[in-house]
Amino acid sequence: MVRPPAFNAAATSGMRSPLRWLATVLAAVLVATPALAKDPQRLRTRALASACAQCHGTEGQAVQGEALVRLAGLPQDYIISQLLAFRTGARPATIMHQITRGYSQEQLEELSKFFAAQKPAP
Question: Which of 19, 39, 50, 74 lies 20 to 30 A from 27 at CA?
Answer without folding.
Answer: 74
